């Protein structure tokens, strides 16, 4: 059987459709027409002789072959994007590369980083954000902060912290002067969420189970790819979401967000510090890691733990 090399354009179209489960959203992302996306996916299926998508006027689903094909195609396209970015903006020497989720970087690390840089003027730090577990750029990585498991065999992991989760909303969402709402009224609010990754339980499932509420009676709204996005929606009073205590503490202190219920539950999963298994001695990196542990130890919303 002769192997045909699909075109990069058709693979990109398939990856976008499979990820969004929508031809329209894929077309918007790539800035082409719906017809062009459909044509490229059809051309790919014809080229390899395998049906990858089941589609109707209302929905798109991957076939079993598509489910098998999609993960490596996404991985390699992401690799091309990252390789291109690296040669366009090569890393500078002697810059610490700190990688974590966009939520940790923007909601917790960035507000504290100025203090570290002021105390260590000879150290430069570059923050690299990822939105998904497993989406790590090994070429832009000195130290990482990740929720685990899963564990990546390329890294050494050290226990870092665990924390709690609870619902938050905009102050405008609450009508009562007491600043809270009865649990039984939660079903009248729109619940916003971020999908769970790997095998971790969903945030809302954890919290609803803890307080004895039935998920089936709730009204769920938009699903967001990451916590910074859902935060913006909550700040604009579009619904209630579950937040991690360290990442919403500043918003709560400044009155931008409020807690409608005084009930917290442990976050599913714990946070670890990751370093590459094979790394040269780096005193500046060691100083940064020591500072990071000190910051976490003094943060009342975080709890250090031992593996």
Automatic annotation (TrEMBL):
Residues 6-63 form the HTH lysR-type domain. Signal peptide: none annotated. One of its GO terms (biological process) is DNA-templated transcription. InterPro entries: LysR-type_TF_proteobact-type, LysR_HTH_N, LysR_subst-bd, WH-like_DNA-bd_sf, WH_DNA-bd_sf. Pfam families: HTH_1, LysR_substrate. Keywords: DNA-binding, Transcription, Transcription regulation. Gene3D superfamilies: Periplasmic binding protein-like II, Winged helix-like DNA-binding domain superfamily/Winged helix DNA-binding domain. The keyword Phosphoprotein does not apply. PROSITE patterns: HTH_LYSR. GO terms for molecular function: DNA-binding transcription factor activity; sequence-specific DNA binding. Belongs to the LysR transcriptional regulatory family. This is LysR family transcriptional regulator, glycine cleavage system transcriptional activator. It comes from Cohaesibacter gelatinilyticus.
